[in-house]
Design goal:
- By secondary structure, this protein is mostly helical.
- Strands 1-2-3 form a 3-stranded antiparallel β-sheet.
- Strand 1 and strand 2 form a beta hairpin.
- Helix 2 runs antiparallel to helix 3.
- The longest helix is centred in the middle third of the chain and has 24 residues.
- The chain is elongated and about 50 Å long.
- It starts with 15 loop residues before the first helix and ends in a 19-residue tail after the last strand.
Protein backbone atom coordinates (compact mmCIF):
# COMPACT_ATOMS: atom_id res chain seq x y z
CA UNK A 1 0.00 0.00 0.00
CA UNK A 2 1.32 3.43 -0.93
CA UNK A 3 1.89 5.37 2.28
CA UNK A 4 1.05 9.05 1.83
CA UNK A 5 1.65 9.99 5.46
CA UNK A 6 5.29 10.93 4.82
CA UNK A 7 6.99 14.11 6.05
CA UNK A 8 8.08 16.07 3.00
CA UNK A 9 11.13 17.39 4.87
CA UNK A 10 12.76 14.30 6.43
CA UNK A 11 10.83 11.35 4.94
CA UNK A 12 9.53 10.18 8.34
CA UNK A 13 6.40 8.03 7.99
CA UNK A 14 3.66 9.26 10.30
CA UNK A 15 2.18 6.61 12.53
CA UNK A 16 -1.51 5.74 12.45
CA UNK A 17 -2.15 7.36 15.90
CA UNK A 18 -0.41 10.57 14.81
CA UNK A 19 -2.53 10.70 11.66
CA UNK A 20 -5.64 9.98 13.72
CA UNK A 21 -4.77 12.95 15.96
CA UNK A 22 -4.45 14.94 12.75
CA UNK A 23 -8.12 14.21 12.06
CA UNK A 24 -9.17 15.84 15.36
CA UNK A 25 -7.35 19.13 14.78
CA UNK A 26 -9.27 21.97 13.18
CA UNK A 27 -6.31 23.67 11.49
CA UNK A 28 -4.37 21.97 8.74
CA UNK A 29 -0.91 22.47 10.28
CA UNK A 30 0.96 19.96 12.42
CA UNK A 31 4.65 19.49 13.19
CA UNK A 32 6.56 16.37 12.22
CA UNK A 33 7.34 14.15 15.22
CA UNK A 34 10.92 13.59 14.04
CA UNK A 35 12.24 16.84 12.54
CA UNK A 36 9.65 19.38 13.73
CA UNK A 37 8.97 20.73 10.23
CA UNK A 38 5.48 22.04 9.60
CA UNK A 39 3.34 19.69 7.57
CA UNK A 40 -0.07 20.43 6.09
CA UNK A 41 -2.87 18.37 4.64
CA UNK A 42 -2.80 18.71 0.87
CA UNK A 43 -5.71 20.51 -0.78
CA UNK A 44 -6.68 17.24 -2.47
CA UNK A 45 -6.74 15.46 0.89
CA UNK A 46 -8.93 18.16 2.48
CA UNK A 47 -11.33 18.03 -0.47
CA UNK A 48 -11.48 14.24 -0.24
CA UNK A 49 -12.30 14.31 3.49
CA UNK A 50 -15.17 16.73 2.85
CA UNK A 51 -16.45 14.44 0.11
CA UNK A 52 -16.41 11.48 2.50
CA UNK A 53 -18.46 13.41 5.05
CA UNK A 54 -21.07 14.35 2.43
CA UNK A 55 -21.20 10.77 1.13
CA UNK A 56 -21.87 9.43 4.64
CA UNK A 57 -24.70 11.91 5.13
CA UNK A 58 -26.26 11.00 1.77
CA UNK A 59 -26.03 7.27 2.55
CA UNK A 60 -27.67 7.82 5.93
CA UNK A 61 -30.49 9.83 4.33
CA UNK A 62 -31.01 7.24 1.59
CA UNK A 63 -31.13 4.37 4.04
CA UNK A 64 -33.50 6.33 6.27
CA UNK A 65 -35.85 6.99 3.31
CA UNK A 66 -35.65 3.56 1.68
CA UNK A 67 -35.73 1.42 4.82
CA UNK A 68 -38.15 2.04 7.64
CA UNK A 69 -35.71 2.24 10.55
CA UNK A 70 -36.48 3.28 14.09
CA UNK A 71 -34.83 6.39 15.45
CA UNK A 72 -32.50 4.27 17.59
CA UNK A 73 -31.43 2.19 14.58
CA UNK A 74 -30.84 5.34 12.53
CA UNK A 75 -28.68 6.88 15.26
CA UNK A 76 -26.65 3.68 15.66
CA UNK A 77 -26.17 3.43 11.88
CA UNK A 78 -25.08 7.07 11.70
CA UNK A 79 -22.59 6.69 14.54
CA UNK A 80 -21.23 3.48 12.99
CA UNK A 81 -20.74 5.04 9.55
CA UNK A 82 -19.07 8.16 10.93
CA UNK A 83 -16.82 6.03 13.14
CA UNK A 84 -15.81 3.86 10.16
CA UNK A 85 -14.96 6.92 8.05
CA UNK A 86 -13.04 8.47 10.95
CA UNK A 87 -10.97 5.33 11.55
CA UNK A 88 -10.19 4.94 7.84
CA UNK A 89 -9.32 8.63 7.40
CA UNK A 90 -5.59 8.32 8.28
CA UNK A 91 -5.12 5.95 5.33
CA UNK A 92 -6.35 8.64 2.92
CA UNK A 93 -4.39 11.74 3.97
CA UNK A 94 -1.57 13.24 1.97
CA UNK A 95 0.94 15.62 3.58
CA UNK A 96 2.69 18.56 2.00
CA UNK A 97 5.26 21.08 3.24
CA UNK A 98 3.30 24.11 1.97
CA UNK A 99 -0.21 25.25 2.86
CA UNK A 100 -2.17 24.71 -0.36
CA UNK A 101 -5.36 26.59 -1.14
CA UNK A 102 -8.49 24.74 -2.24
CA UNK A 103 -9.16 27.15 -5.12
CA UNK A 104 -7.29 26.08 -8.24
CA UNK A 105 -6.59 22.74 -6.63
CA UNK A 106 -4.31 20.45 -8.58
CA UNK A 107 -3.27 16.94 -7.78
CA UNK A 108 0.47 16.69 -7.08
CA UNK A 109 2.49 15.06 -9.85
CA UNK A 110 3.11 11.34 -9.40
CA UNK A 111 6.64 10.22 -8.79
CA UNK A 112 8.10 7.76 -11.25
CA UNK A 113 8.48 4.27 -9.82
CA UNK A 114 11.96 2.88 -9.64
CA UNK A 115 12.43 -0.55 -11.16
Amino acid sequence: MNNKRICQNCGHIWSYPAALRRAWLSNSEQSCEKCGARQYLSAHSRMRSGTYAVMVMVVILLIRVLVDLSVTSSVLLSVGLFLAVFLLYPFTIELTSDNQKLAGMQRPPRKKKKK
